[in-house]
Amino acid sequence: MNFDEAKTLRLQRWRTTIDDQDFRIQNPEGHRETLYEMAATLLNEGLIDLLEQFDMNEMADAAYWHAVEELQDSTGHYRGASTYDVVQIDNGNLLGTISRSIFNFKSDEPRGASFAYDGKVYSDAGGVRLTLGLSRKIGRISGLVLEMNGRRYQLIETERMIAGVTHRPLSDADAYRALIDAAQVAHEERDLRTFERVRPHIESAAFCICPDCLDRFDTREDCPACAGKGFVQKLTAHP
Ligand SMILES: [Zn+2]
Q1: In angstroms, what is the span from residue 222 Cα to ligand 1's centroid?
Q2: Distance 14 CA to ligand 1 centre (A)
Q3: pLDDT-derived band of residue 76, with 50, 70 and 90 as boundaries?
Q4: What is the whole-number distance in angstroms between the Cα of residue 176 and the centre of ligand 1?
Q5: In whole angstroms, what is the distance from residue 157 CA to residue 98 CA?
Q6: CB neighbours of 38 closer than 8 A, spacing ≥ 6?
Q7: What is the 231 CA–ligand 1 centroid distance (Å)?
Q8: What is the pTM of this model?
Q9: Fewer CB near the terminus (10 Å): N or C of the chain?
Q10: pLDDT by residue (tens digit) across 161-179?
């Protein structure tokens, strides 16, 4: 393989990665980091020059901000690396947990000798679904809502891997306020380093931006939904 062929092949691999929508939305920070690493390796091997690396990293940053904006407009996104409580929406009862895509019922009902767990979450082009092992029932997950047997369940994130470390959702209201303020400034200034450090903690926090006033300065003050705080507590399971 000559230089041009090698370069074309490796650039194609980078292109496939930047176009990987699932990776980008599942883990925007990991997606950008991977693209940066790929470009650095290409530079080290002499397949691209500094200017090309700069252009590629600019594209990786643009893909990151694009993902951030998409995620801000969505009501939540199922993440295979996270842990969730599965809570029935109309009565708040805990059905079970999903951890790294493995589902287990809360109760220790016998699941049959051939099953190591009660169910598994699959994600592909057709969407996200939960398949139960014993009953072979299938539930659909859209956003963070599971529909199964005509019932609706909310997925509540209880653990998330951020940069290789497991974090519990942030539950301190003052700390949450400080983080969303820091993120807003970083977003306006396109300060990617700061923004990407705080974003996963904001997204997985026990709070979310108030859906009524959207934390807008002019409407927040008189908002009854959040009492002027600009954010509200997410749904939680019965203890
Ligand atoms: Zn509000």
Answers
A1: 8
A2: 42
A3: confident
A4: 15
A5: 9
A6: 13, 14, 17
A7: 6
A8: 0.81
A9: C
A10: 888 889 999 999 999 999 9
